[in-house]
Design a protein that fits this description.
Elements (H helix, E strand, L loop, with lengths): L5 E2 L5 H6 L5 E6 L4 H16 L5 E6 L4 H6 L7 E6 L2 E7 L5 H9 L5
Length: about 110
């Protein structure tokens, strides 16, 4: 992915997400998922807008099954919000107000 989003793997998840000093929004997605492709530009925009205050990471569930299973990802897109290494919120699917819904979930956790 281009822009400010970070591709995360099973191997880099702990350091990029759990060890982050800023909140992290993790997008669990797959290339064949239509709603995931719809979410991608919004996630890029969020990554740009919250640059330095929030990290936006993407986990391709086809290539990184271990971390998807660990967090019991049953449908995609699913976004998990982490702060201080703990999952604090979850967003599943892409609703009509996706961007504003995401921001409402993120705001309480960013400085």
């Amino acid at each position: 992915m281009a822009g400010n989003t970070i591709d995360v793997t099973d191997d880099s998840f702990e350091s990029e997400v759990l060890g982050s000093d800023v909140p992290v929004l993790v997008d669990y997605w797959a290339p064949w998922c239509g709603p995931c492709r719809m979410a991608a530009p919004v996630l890029e925009k969020i990554a740009d807008e919250y640059d330095g205050r929030l990290k936006v990471c993407k986990v391709n569930i086809d290539d990184n099954r271990e971390i998807a299973m660990q967090y019991r990802i049953m449908s995609i897109p699913t976004m998990l919000l982490f702060k201080d290494g703990e999952m604090v919120d979850q967003i599943t699917g892409v609703a009509p107000n996706f961007e504003s819904d995401l921001k409402r979930k993120i705001e309480p956790y960013v400085e």
